[in-house]
Amino acid sequence: MVSSTSARSSEQGPVTPFTTHTLLPNGSSSKSNSSLPDMSQSSFVKAFFTLLILGGYLGMGLILLTIAFSSKVRRHPLFVNFLLCLMIYTTSFCFLLFAGHQFDGEGKPLFLCVIQVSFIYGSQVMAILAGLAMVFNVWLKVRILAQAVENTQVVEENVYNEVFGNELYEKTYQRHAFWTTIALLALPYLVFLFVAMIFILEGQRHPLIFDIASNEVYCKLQKSTQTSVPTISGMLIFIGIGLIVLVGKDLLTYRKRMIWPKPKSHLSKQVRFSLVVRLGLLMMCCLFSFLAAVIASLRSGGKFTPIVQALFPLLTFFIFGSQKDLLDAWGLTSLYYWIKAHAGKPPSQVVMMNLRHEESRSYIATSSTASTEAGYSPPLIRVSSPIRPPEQALVR
């Protein structure tokens, strides 16, 4: 998986424990180098970690906490696993930052650089595999519906709701796909450990193949070092894009041929392409990140690739964090309609409207209590609310 030129291997001489080395740009290894320019304080490095932490920790953490504590937001375990993989992906780039050596002006410890490179390559494959597992699982379920329609079989409503009910959520553990889900959950982590161990062992044998990136953000491999990780990542991304196309095809087949006994409005609410679109956007983000890595391997340095890598978790947050149930749980739907109802009005008028609304509700509650105590029920009075209730929201 990793190979280097024979010239560089012969230059390094006898192998010594790399925990005592300090890695400098261009692959040099020494105790210190006071002439090294301190690029780590630049605004580019700060922007890189800001984008990375916003998406990888704050964004992913917000979705995970919402899933954990909100009874109305439910997701498939593979989706939760994908978010966890993205947090590990973020940690791999922040490894030197958390270790306290990101802003060292005299080079980085070689041991930490080896660990970071191992985690970066391993987590990239892991994140792509976790996203591919989601796509593959959805394709399996949609394929069941498409085959049922082709064979003129009756589709069970619980299977139908598994695929399309509440976006990515389905009760896989209660069905025959239990072991398939377990395998899809474990596979990304096994591959991550396998790739990371290969790079760690390679770092012990050939420590000079590691280098600090020219932008001083993270450690990397030397240009002369060949690795098959980008090739494997590219193959997985194209497989995911192909599965997305198959999911869309099977979904169209199902919607055209299925004679659903319920009203068409119910069908249009349940069978939506939003899930396919979100997964397709995810695969396109993976492809864009892969192309950026390829460009970086063909050209010298540059800031384009690190920014794309930092944007990947943030774009994922926008793709999946814009789902309606999450927006409702965060109160953004109610806030949207409140702003829409009071747009263009002076603050004093908004305050008066809210006061009149509260007085009306209090009057109705008091009148209802007094009427009940008197022994009769007055006719219901409908009071129009300036705020549109969140259950009528059409935000997707």
Automatic annotation (TrEMBL):
The chain crosses the membrane at residues 47-69, 78-99, 119-140, 177-201, 232-254, 275-298. Residues 1-27 have a biased composition (Polar residues). Keywords: Membrane, Transmembrane, Transmembrane helix. Residues 1-35 are annotated as: Disordered. It comes from the Eukaryota. The keyword Membrane applies. This is Uncharacterized protein. It comes from Pyrrhoderma noxium. The lineage of its organism: Eukaryota, Fungi, Dikarya, Basidiomycota, Agaricomycotina.
